[in-house]
Every structure is written in structure tokens, then in C-alpha cells.
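STRUCTURE:
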């Protein structure tokens, strides 16, 4: 009896583990709290993007990491005005599994002075897991992190999704690619 029950539980656990899929086109963003400039300043992602007619949300493995700091975030900061004026984008946001203080310091370091890009801290990785875009980066970064991705959203619903095939590369999620699809 015990072995049968155990096998059933293992089978159920395996089924659920394989049934998970990345967020996909047509899905609404999950209802998850993230931090803004401090741990006490939180916002629900679904609420934040549900009021934006057109938005871009992109995720990075970590603040202050080379690809994120030299290419990914600076590209969106540089293109922010053009994206908003020429392409009708209401909001651009970057999310990472870091705390709010790290994200705020990173924004200053990359000269996101006018908050062209809203920085979102997913300090516990809850949004990364809810979107099924988390991966184990504990060897390099100490914990699970976001796969590098970008999403074009309309009223909080994913219209286009670009997930880097190797999780951390800099290709399909860069602003130059996303801009082609607006």
C-alpha cells in the first residue's frame, strides 16, 4: 500500500514538473509582487502592465553582470525615447532576481537617470518561477535567475516573446530585435 501511494505521488510530481511551460504568447502576466526602489515599495506586475496599452518587459540574469550592464539594459535606455515616441510604447521595464537596493544602484551606474526603464526587483525569484523563466545559475551567480528574455505586452498580455535559446545570450532579446516586431 505504501509503495503504491509513493509511486502515485512520484508520478504526480513528475507529471507536474514536465507540464510546466514558459509563459507564451496570449498569456496574461502572472499576479506577482515585485519591488521598485526599496523592499517596502512593491507593485503587482499584472497591475503595472495591465494599464499599459503597449509595453516591453525584459529580464536579465543579474544586475551588474557584463552582458546586462554593457549591452542589454543600456540598449533599452538609449532607445527608450524612440520606442515611446515612434512606436507607442507606454512602459519599458527590466526585471532581475536581485534586491531593490541592487537594482537602484545598478540603474544609477548605467545612467538610467530619468527612469527611462523601470527597474523591477524580483528578489525571491517568484516572478521568474511564475513565468517559468527561471534557471539554476547557482554556479556563477549564487541562485536561480531569470533567463534572458524580452516580451512585447498589450494590456498585460504577451503579444510577442523572445527567450534566448541558451538562457543568457544576447541576441533575440536585444532592443534592436524587439523593435522590429513593434
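SEQUENCE:
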Amino acid at each position: 500500500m505504501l509503495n503504491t501511494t509513493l509511486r502515485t505521488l512520484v508520478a504526480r510530481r513528475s507529471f507536474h514538473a514536465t507540464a510546466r511551460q514558459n509563459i507564451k504568447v496570449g498569456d496574461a502576466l502572472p499576479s506577482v509582487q515585485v519591488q521598485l526602489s526599496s523592499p517596502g515599495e512593491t507593485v503587482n506586475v499584472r497591475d503595472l502592465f495591465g494599464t499599459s496599452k503597449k509595453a516591453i518587459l525584459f529580464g536579465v540574469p543579474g544586475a551588474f553582470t557584463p552582458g546586462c550592464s554593457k549591452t542589454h539594459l543600456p540598449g533599452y535606455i538609449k532607445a527608450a525615447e524612440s520606442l515611446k515616441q515612434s512606436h507607442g510604447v507606454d512602459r519599458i521595464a527590466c526585471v532581475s532576481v536581485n534586491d531593490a537596493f541592487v537594482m537602484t544602484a545598478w540603474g544609477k551606474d548605467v545612467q538610467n537617470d530619468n527612469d527611462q526603464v523601470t527597474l523591477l526587483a524580483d528578489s525571491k525569484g517568484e516572478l521568474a518561477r511564475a513565468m517559468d523563466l527561471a534557471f539554476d545559475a547557482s554556479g556563477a551567480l549564487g541562485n536561480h535567475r531569470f533567463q534572458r528574455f524580452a516580451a512585447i505586452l498589450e494590456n498585460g498580455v504577451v503579444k510577442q516573446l523572445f527567450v534566448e535559446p541558451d538562457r543568457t545570450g544576447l541576441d533575440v532579446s536585444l532592443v534592436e530585435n524587439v523593435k522590429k516586431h513593434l
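REMARK: The chain has one domain: 22-180.
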